[in-house]
What we know:
Distance between the termini: 24 Å
Low-confidence stretches: none
Structural class: alpha+beta
Amino acid sequence: MSDSESKPSGGLYEALGRVPSGIYILTVGAGENATGMLASWVQQAGFEPPMISLAIKPGRHVAQRIEAGEPFALNVVAEGDKRLLKHFGKGFEPGQPAFEGIDTEPTAVGAPALAAALAVLECRASAGVDASDHRVVVAHVTGGALRGDARPMVHVRNRADHY
């Protein structure tokens, strides 16, 4: 079967690409073991207790760490903060320094909070499930802080079949 026969037509990917998503930096670890990654598929998933869900591409070492129970921080990127987007959008290999030139401070759970973040949520994964070509992780939000009154960065893609 060719790609054109296996992929839906009729504008499905263009329509799905118009589902807006926020821009976040997920951070985990401390000291030389700290790292971060750009995340955009994040959603509030519960009120009591407060929960979020996020989708991560399999094989990302960050996903393995948070699903093993390591606490993490979800840093909400403010509208217009392209510096954080550019810095974390390139990705980091295990052991590669992720915070060079980025001001951080430890959260109560030990994960780095980005000084420039609009808001920070402290989280711990509680469940995960394979979903298509990503892993969906549900996490309990154990703490958080709003650090400004800017609007969060929102991303809308042209197509929803690739980043």
